[in-house]
């Protein structure tokens, strides 16, 4: 949900990640050592993981809280457990 996320922050982070990915793509076509490429891949992966963490925190602080306070707590908790499962697969 848009209202539970700091979309400006997320867009800024995603643009940075896209820049990292474009740089990695260019590195592949040049004579850059494999280790340096792997370092950059890991940096992009870490940045993407942070975006997921921010989305998950926003979901918890807004959507889950609202669902528990104004809706079906059991359903909300089950949906949050699914969200955590999806996030944990990123690692």
From TrEMBL:
GO molecular function list: DNA binding; metal ion binding
Coiled-coil boundaries: none
Any one GO biological process: negative regulation of DNA-templated transcription
InterPro entries: Metal_Tscrpt_repr, Metal_Tscrpt_repr_sf
Protein name: Metal-sensing transcriptional repressor
Domain of life per record: Bacteria
Pfam families for the chain: Trns_repr_metal
């Amino acid at each position: 949900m848009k209202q539970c996320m700091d979309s400006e922050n997320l867009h800024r982070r995603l643009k940075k990640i896209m820049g990292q990915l474009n740089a990695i793509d260019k590195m592949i076509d040049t004579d850059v050592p494999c280790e340096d490429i792997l370092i950059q891949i890991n940096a992009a992966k870490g940045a993407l993981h942070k975006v997921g963490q921010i989305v998950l925190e926003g979901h918890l602080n807004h959507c889950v809280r609202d669902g528990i306070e104004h809706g079906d707590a059991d359903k909300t908790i089950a949906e949050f457990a699914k969200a955590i499962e999806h996030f944990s697969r990123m690692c």
